[in-house]
Amino acid sequence: MSGLLLRAPHPTCCGPRALRPAHRSGARFAAAIGSLLAATVCFSASAATEPADLDPSKIERGRYVVSISGCNDCHTSGFVQSEGKVPESKWLSGDSLGWRGPWGTTYPSNLRRLLASLSEDQWLHFARNLQSRPPMPWFNLRFMSDDDLRSIHHFVRHLGPTEDSVPDYVPPEREPATPYVIFPSPPQ
Fold first, then answer.
1. CA distance readout (Å), 56 to 47, 61, 62, 124
2. What integer pLDDT is reported at residue 52 of this predicted model?
């Protein structure tokens, strides 16, 4: 299937499948994954936020932050094409539209499934330490305040998990089976 050459409005995608080494070093990548797994083990004693524990003001703030940050642009199927007219019940479930570039093809993850599996503290650690393949602007998560990240967690937990799955990462030498956007290469 040939790629679609589209201009991305505000591309985002993240999650465990999108992790990549900072300098293409296998050792650094392994260390990053090890750190993430260790953090998960360290935080496993803390229970994930139960829906009854969700703060309504944080849910509203999280809805706002998700909306203005462009999370839905990629993590919600059809959001951009419908000018944002996707029911909230469908938000942040991932998408099968791939983003292809020199790194391969990545897919926007199902954030509802991801955050359902993480406590607030685990989510903060994840967001602060994420390094992912393009086009996810993972570095922008580091600029968000702890309150904003916690509010995102409350909002996404409020939406509830979905079982929607997204395709796995496709290495650059393989042709994706799904439609994809050809993302411009960085300047040399």
1. 19, 9, 10, 19
2. 72
- Residue 182 CA to residue 188 CA, distance in Å, equals 17
CA proximity to 124, closest of 147, 105, 156: 147
Whole-prediction pTM: 0.73
Q: Dihedral sign for Cα 38, 51, 112, 73, please.
A: negative
Q: Across-strand partners of 106?
A: 99
Closest C-alpha to 71, from 17, 144, 180, 167:
144
Q: How would you classify residue 155: left for phi > 0, otherwise alpha for psi between -120 and 50, otherwise beta? A: alpha
81-131 tens-digit pLDDT: 999 999 999 999 999 999 999 999 999 999 999 999 999 999 999 999 999
| N-term to C-term CA, the chain | 27
Q: What percent of the chain has pLDDT over 70?
A: 73
What is each CA distance from 4 to 62, 71, 81, 94, 107, in whole angstroms? Answer: 32, 21, 14, 19, 15
| Structural contact between residues 92 and 75, judged by C-beta atoms closer than 8 angstroms | yes
Q: What is the pLDDT of residue 118?
A: 97
